Fold this protein.
Amino acid sequence: IIAGTRALFIIGAPIVFQLIMIAPQSFQPGYNPLRDTVSSLVWGPHGWLQTVNFILFGAMLMALVEELKPLTSDKIWPRFGGFLLFLVGIGFIILAVCPTQSPGGPETIQAIIHGLTVYFIVFFFPAGCLLLAPVLRVGSLAKFIVTFTIVTGAIGLCLILLGVFIMANEAQWFGMLERVLLLNGFLWLEIIAVYFAGENFINKVVLARTM
């Protein structure tokens, strides 16, 4: 399904996101990845990197959903799941346009939009995975892909409950929770992208041999 330069972009974006994220947090004084959110990296000396990072990842997720559209075209709930994931991609771009509240600064309209967008992303991603899972039963590892997608969505929902507990108890490790949420999503996106790109390649080889 996924092929060409778009496949390379979709496969590479989650890896690039993680690598780019390392640079700003390494040079931001007093930054604690266990406590501080990824969004607050935009206020560091190399914060523009994280802004670009959000845009890159959002574009990647929207591109992936577009590539998977043929699987969801005739099914209502999986199509809605794909739509939710597309909105998650848009959400990451909104995070870039509307930065979070600066350390010690006033709460701006942009910061409020940023915070609300984070909540939408956190809820929409696991819901999108669970709704999309049934139509991913294609190819040589169909059962694994469907199961992995459902598990990813379930883990996302569990992490939401953990996040509620953290906020209720004002715990100081919200940054770590956010990174686990991101990692859960990145693993799913990477495996889905690689799998469907591989299936596309295999199908082309089989077709060429039969001609």
